[in-house]
C-alpha cells in the first residue's frame, strides 16, 4: 500500500476513535444529567415544615438510578416522595404471579435512608393495570380476590415504610358518576369499600387516602367524592383525600380554582385530612416569560391555599424538573410544568412557591 494511503488510514482511525469517545462521553452526560445547581433560599422541606406541611415530589425511577444531580436536589428539597410509576400494578406484576419489586424498593430505600416519607401510589386504578387484568377476562369473584391480594401483599411489603397510601385513584367521572373501569364494570362501587377495608387490615398503621383528578373545585365530581368519603369515614376506613391539582393557564380552570379552598374545607369538616398530591402547571410551548410569571403566581397561590386550610398536610409536585415531567408526553404542545428547568435551574415558580410556603410562617 502506498505510504500516503496508510497515513490517511491512520489519521482516519484516530479521528474515528475520538469521535467515538466524544459520543460516549456525551451519552453518559446525558444519562447522568446536569449537576445540581445551588437553589436559592431555605429548602422547600424547611419552608413547608415551618407550617407543618410536607413537601413532596413524584420520583422518576430512571432519574433516581442515573442522575446524581437529580438525587441531590431530591434528597435536599423534599420531605415526602411518591414513586411516579414504580408502584403501579403494571409495574409490580406485569405477568400474573411474577412480581417486580426492584424499582419500588429503590424509591422506598432511597427515602428510608434519608428519613423522607413515602406516599404509596396507587393500589387500585383504571389505568396502568396489567394486561392480564385489563383484558377483562377474569370472572368478578376472582377479580375481587386478585384486587384484595394485591392490596395486602403490596402494603405488607412496605409496612412501616410507606406512611400513606393512595388506595384508590380517579374512581369518579367528571359527571359525578362512578367511572367505568375494569373494577367498577365487574364489581360496582363496592370495590372501593372492599379495597379500603383490605388496606386497613393489611397495615392498620398506614394512613389511607382516596386520590382524585379534577376534583379540586366544588362541582358534580367533588360532590360525589364527598359522599364517598363520608361513607368511608363512617366505617373508619379513610384518613385523607388527595387532590391531584394538574393545572394549566388556559384551560378550565386556569390556575387554582376559585372554590378550591372552600372545597378542601368541606372535606376537612367531614373529618379527613386533605393533601395536594400531583401538582403541576403546564404551559403552552414555547413558554414565554409572561407565562412563567403567571405560572409562578399559580404555584404561590396553591401554597397559600394549602396553608389556609389547617388540615392540608402536604403538597406534592408531579416532578420537580422539566427534565422529568409527564406533561410533554401526555399533553403534546404543553410542557415547562415544574419548578426547575431542564438543567435543574430554578424557574420563577420555584422562588414564588418557596416564598409562599413560608411567608409569615
Ligand atoms: C402518570 C405518570 O406521570 C406518567 O409517567 C405515566 O406515563 C402515566 O401516569 N394521575 C395519576 C398519576 O394519578 O399516576 C399519573 O401519572 C398522572 C395522572
From TrEMBL:
Reactions the enzyme catalyzes: Endohydrolysis of (1->4)-beta-D-xylosidic linkages in xylans
The record ties this protein, via PROSITE patterns, to:
GH10_2
Q: Name one GO biological process term.
A: xylan catabolic process
Could you tell me one molecular function GO term of this UniProt entry? endo-1,4-beta-xylanase activity
Q: Pfam families attached here?
A: Glyco_hydro_10 (PF00331)
What class does this enzyme belong to in the EC scheme? hydrolase
InterPro entries in the cross-refs: GH, GH10, GH10_dom
What sequence ranges are listed for the domain GH10? Answer: 38-356
Give the EC number: 3.2.1.8
Q: Which UniProt keywords apply?
A: Carbohydrate metabolism, Glycosidase, Hydrolase, Polysaccharide degradation, Signal, Xylan degradation
What domain of life is recorded for the organism?
Bacteria
Q: Answer yes or no on keyword Hydrolase.
A: yes
User: Which family does this protein fall into?
Assistant: Belongs to the glycosyl hydrolase 10 (cellulase F) family.
- Name used for this protein in its record: Beta-xylanase
* Originating organism: Paraconexibacter sp. AEG42_29
Q: Provide the organism lineage as a comma list.
A: Bacteria, Bacillati, Actinomycetota, Thermoleophilia, Solirubrobacterales
